[in-house]
Amino acid sequence: MLTAASYDRQIPVHRRMTYEQMLQAVEPCPVHVTEGVLPGDVSGVYDESVTTIVIDGSMTDVQKRCTLVHELLHWLHADDSCEGVGKSHEEVRVCRETAMMLVAPDAYIRAEREYDGEIYQMACELDVTVFVLECYRRILEGRVRAY
After folding, report:
1. Which residue spans within 66-127 are E strands per DSSP?
2. What is the DSSP string of 10-66?
3. pLDDT, tens digit, for every residue of 91-113?
4. Around 61, how many Cα atoms within 13 Å sit in the side-chain half-sphere?
């Protein structure tokens, strides 16, 4: 469980949970999670003013799972801006934290050996998106800000 002391918020999810299990675990939290239709390639959004997360309902459960964790981390930090998505400090921080939360180091090592580094197969094995796995690889390579 991750906690943000300055906002007294906790995320009661862990990497072994499915999307449905995560939704159930988050239900008692003071953040509302819903599915909807989002424009373009937007997979999820968090709005601090109404403490609401919207997940694109057309995605697979693995995509929804990764997006939910990502948006929960925005909630944890009370992020209130989506300007410069992909480049802002908040977005970089949350991408890192999502990867670290969802990818277990020992499981990554096993998957890398088993699939000879083929990222799509590894992502499937680890139950994460290729994007999350690429972020994890950048962390391992020390390229933290290379998004």
Report:
1. none
2. EE---TT--HHHHHHHHTTSSSEEEEE--STT--EEEEGGGTEEEEETTS-HHHHHH
3. 999 999 999 999 999 999 999 99
4. 8
Q: ∠ at Cα 70 (94, 81), nearest 5°?
A: 65
Question: CB–CB of 103/96 below 8 Å?
Answer: no
Tally: H helices and E strands in the chain: 6, 5
CA angle 78, 6, 69 (to 5 degrees): 45
| pLDDT tier, 2 (very low <50, low <70, confident <90, very high otherwise) | low
Q: Which residue has the tokens 């969802």?
A: 102
Number of neighbouring beta carbons within 10 Å of residue 15: 15
DSSP state of 124: H
Q: Which of 29, 35, 24 is nearest to 11 (CA)?
A: 29
pTM for this one?
0.88
pLDDT grade for 88, boundaries at 50, 70 and 90: confident
User: Which sign, positive or negative, has the C-alpha torsion 20, 24, 29, 33?
Assistant: positive
